What does this fold into?
Amino acid sequence: MISSTQIHTTAKKKVLILGASLENEPFIRYLLESGFELVCVDKNPAPLDKTLAQFHDALKIYAQDFSDDDTLDAIIAKEKVDYTLALPIGRALVCLGRINDKFAYAGPSFYAIDTLTDKQKFHLFCEEHGLNHCHHMQLAIDSDTSLTQELEHIEESFNYPFIIKPTFGSGSSGVEIISSRKDLLEYQMPARFDSGLVLIEELIKGTEYSCSFVVDNEGMPHCMGIFSKYISKPPYRQESVYFSDDFSDELSLIVPSITTICNELKLKSCFISSDVIVTKDKESFIIDISPRLGGNSISTLLSNNNNHPLRFFQECIIYGHKPVINKQRCAVLAFFDFDKESSYKGVTDVLTGKKNTDDYGIASCFNKDEKAHIIELINDLHIGDEIGPMKNGADVYRGHIVIEHDSIDHAYQLADKYLAALQ
It folds into this structure.
């Protein structure tokens, strides 16, 4: 993430953030370095008061369940919060919507968040407002109803393959491509999604993009970044590679739908994170959307393009300026996704064929000219770790490499070279 010292605040602003996990630490650090005061609420917060000890006067962390309305409202009143900010907290984001409504904060309403994060409601919204959406069916999986009991109904309505996902899920957890009856009968929704509601959706074929928007104080969306991506091999649907390039043609197909959503849901002073598939027929289908910031991987790419989202939070949302968005550079962010299961032994030296772990193996894998294109490399693998195809979001913590080059092809070749040396 780019240094937040590039931003200078003129007055202290106090911001409420729901969620104090390690995943949110880079966002929290950025805001603290920019001069904000933060109030973070989390039932089980990470020890951020230790990792961010130098900001102890500006950071308050409450170990409270933020779904406890009365307690949270009392914290807000006590701390005299100026703004709220939606970080990646999935369906729990509706708690922030209630707060925005009650205290009249800038940002998405409860109704807007509920509509976008409840996937069934979003399908109905798309149908009502003429937006593309795929054929779908919602089912309740509980003690009285199972996928086995609904098998005939499902197979009458859908051709294999299709997608199954939790209605209230976030990210890739619980999302699978179902290619056969066997896959369907073996599907298990993750325990953390306790609603029992799943969606079955037609599999839309096309190129998938991750889109990040800032919605200004007048309700106009501005695209901070659009990145195409590769998805891991079935049955799982986990992002394995992001590509940064000029996707302005594809963006022009997506913006009208995002604009309609902003207008109809009265979205202002917020962010939108969305996954969109663009078909060969130039039709765009929003397959996931939430009025919040994207995760750290997206922020890394945005930062590389000098479009860090928290810069827009200050410039656009707090001070009301029109966002100045920089052109995207050619770059690739590749997670450690592998074709086969194996045990990690280090990085293969391209000259000797031997394994080593010195300096992440950069010296043994890249020459001097190639190393100049490495923007970021994080390798959290340890000798003996089991590696293989990516299955869910937890696998992103194995590591990633970011390469910038004169073309996507050249960037991907270098990223792929490193991944091949890991296995």
Observations:
- The CA atoms of residues 335 and 400 lie 4 Å apart.
